[in-house]
Design goal:
single chain, 126 residues, alpha+beta, 2 domains, three-stranded antiparallel β-sheet, 23% helix
Length: 126
């Protein structure tokens, strides 16, 4: 059984088995935004057994009219609040935001495959 994922419109494939070796590069590194929708906020707060207001105060910040997950510092790197270094995984994986679910198939990377390959060892050119 292959872990190779392909998406129409993208000139590369993704080998998800590489996730076990990369130390969460898609969850760590430069600071950025991890946007969440109202529905995602509800699902994550439910998973964490927190009421929505408590979840928002503890884990999110508002940028313009959107919410983004806060980051924490580790050495000189930022990482998602829900990235767990010990397990090299996401503590909210089953309800992670769409932005996380669709990585590495983002429109941004369609013309920046070389940049993506530096971040993700699972990228394979077709």
């Amino acid at each position: 059984m292959s872990d190779l994922i392909k998406k129409e419109g993208f000139d590369y494939a993704f080998d998800s088995s590489a996730c076990s070796t990369c130390q969460g590069r898609c969850c760590t590194g430069e600071s950025g935004y991890i946007y969440v929708t109202k529905e995602e906020i509800e699902k994550i707060s439910q998973l964490l057994n927190l009421d929505i207001k408590e979840f928002v105060a503890k884990y999110l910040f508002k940028t313009d009219h959107e919410y983004s997950i806060k980051e924490k510092m580790h050495n000189d790197s930022y990482e998602c609040m829900f990235y767990d270094r010990a397990s090299n995984g996401c503590t909210i994986y089953d309800v992670r935001p769409l932005q996380c679910r669709t990585f590495p198939f983002w429109s941004y990377f369609k013309t920046r495959v070389d940049e993506l390959k530096l971040e993700c060892p699972g990228i394979i050119n077709d």
